[in-house]
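Predict the assembly for these two chains.
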Amino acid sequence: MSETDRVVAVVSQVMGVPAEDVTPEASADTIAAWDSLRHMNLILALEEEFGISFDDEEIVELLTVGLIVETIQAKRRPA
Amino acid sequence: MTGPHGAIVTTPSFAEIEAELARVDMRGMPAFRFVVLRNITVEPVAAYLRYFAYRAGLNARVAFGAYDTILQDALGADILDAQADCILVHTALEQLSWRLARDFPALSKADVAAELERVDEFVGAVCAALRDRTKAMILWHGLVTPAYPSFGILDRQSEDGQPAVIGELNRSLRRRLRDAGDAFFVDTDACLARVGYGRFFDWRQWHLGKAPYAREALRELAFEDLKFVRARLGKNKKCIVLDCDNVLWGGVVGEDGLGGLRLGESHPGSAFRELQQELVSLSARGVLIALCSKNNPEDVWQVFREHPGMVLKEQHVAAARINWNDKASNLRDLARDLNLGLDSMVFVDDSDFEVNLVRRELPEVEVIHLPPERPSEYRLILASSGLFDTLAVSQEDRQRGAMYQAEAERKRLEDTATDLEGYLRSLEMVAEVGLADAAATPRIAQQTQRTNQFNLTTRRYGDAEIAHLAAHEASDVVYLRLRDRFGDSGIVAACVLRYREGGALVDTFLVSCRALSRGVEAVLLVEVLRLARRKGCARVMGEFYATPKNAQVGDFYLRHGFIEGDAAESQADRVFVFDLSGAIPAPPRWFATIASTIT
């Protein structure tokens, strides 16, 4: 599974929405269930899924699916 | 559950837990309602609470009070109006007293004393408000001792350093909880030590949403909470059944011989010795130790008698099945011997084959599979299982092993006796019946929490509730102590009587499984009937609430002169009435002495 597919699966599971609705443009504005508590769950679930840790700024900024995928890809790219 | 052996005992991830909770059907399980009061964000704990409750056979719901409104919620929140079974309180010291938590060096001794008093009064007010509104068990999570105290290395050199002051806060919290009754201190520091400081907190979430605990921390805290819940509901395990070869000692006695076993103070036998010491400690807490081993019995007992490294002794062993039969049959026999349900037993073995057999044949038995490649972790695996916790350790618990030995001697006598009554007479039983006093209260409460088989209503009570029932004029709590020529069994039966409308209702009537088939229930019932008559009651009502465990007592009241009534109006499955205008039956003849101080 690609990173995008894995992100979509996690977002879909945490927010309780169908995977089709989790487009790259989907965000806290388009997904009604995406409140602050679910956002926290999403961050932790992504960290668990990818074995990574987001920085202070990232955890408040990662509010669209596209940005989440980009950030994860950047973090996983060997420096 | 967790700890350094995490490499072996794996716990599912948060996502796996959520998926499993969504998948399983809990509708057949008893409901259990947690209410969480907190001054921090702890919402993800709900999944862990529901998961560990599910593993204990409970269908849990979790409701949260609003953020940082503990006292207001305790005084008047709607969530407490519905039936709550357990109140969890999570408090971060930063939110209770920023000055003690983070500004400690600026405080004078008088400031510290004032803060201590203020926090203590808050805790007292919350406890009092909760007890006013609910009988639910209260679990208050202790305040964390700082890993980096404010004066650094100096703090630990004095009795008024920051860690000592927080220790004092926790002591006063414990006092408040003791006073509230059925309220307990959950050791957050111990949970933290197991997980590790670096993994216990998520400082990003602390700053973002006042959510200090990482998921691992919430998992450990929820696991700890469930130990209290299981103990309170009598779901704690009562017996541990152990394989011998490569569990109690390294090697196979039948092949390696006594001298070839690994067991002693140095490597590699020390791991087995430490496991044995843990078992001896469990025995002192009242857990029954049983053996289930494929061996020649004389080989095993020779190790017990002659091996210098044995810490576990024959006197700790309540029952044994050492033979070549399959272990599932042996476990069933052990359960019968010890008068225990299979769901009270934990089976411990290192063999894949035996573990799988027991899991398949007896799913109600909890299984601990010891990894043969890591005897060094055996002790910790047992200590961290969390299966045997109780809310109190009574004198009866400490002597339980000896009591079962006495029981074995009685059984031997029974085998030689020709008639049952002659056998019972030969025991020279002395029954003592009295009203519950402060000394008897904890044991009676414990019995209501533990007894499953001879229990007519299975109502579980805490110490405070029993003390209240005993003190109140509209109710009485009666106990029966038993001793015989083989020893003192302590309090083995109890009854709660509630007076109303000219009659008495038997709210609770139970007999410990250690004292069945001797007639103590008849002695207690006769005394209770006499007590009710003396109190001016015209009749005594009995109820039967059926559970999977108590079918044997469904006809108890019918066998003792009660008449069955119509249960349609009652929540009970069956109701019975005894008309006190008639004669009260005589107690069994085979007791040497019946000493009653209640009638």
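The first helix of chain B runs from residue 14 to 23. Chain B is about 40% helix and 20% strand.
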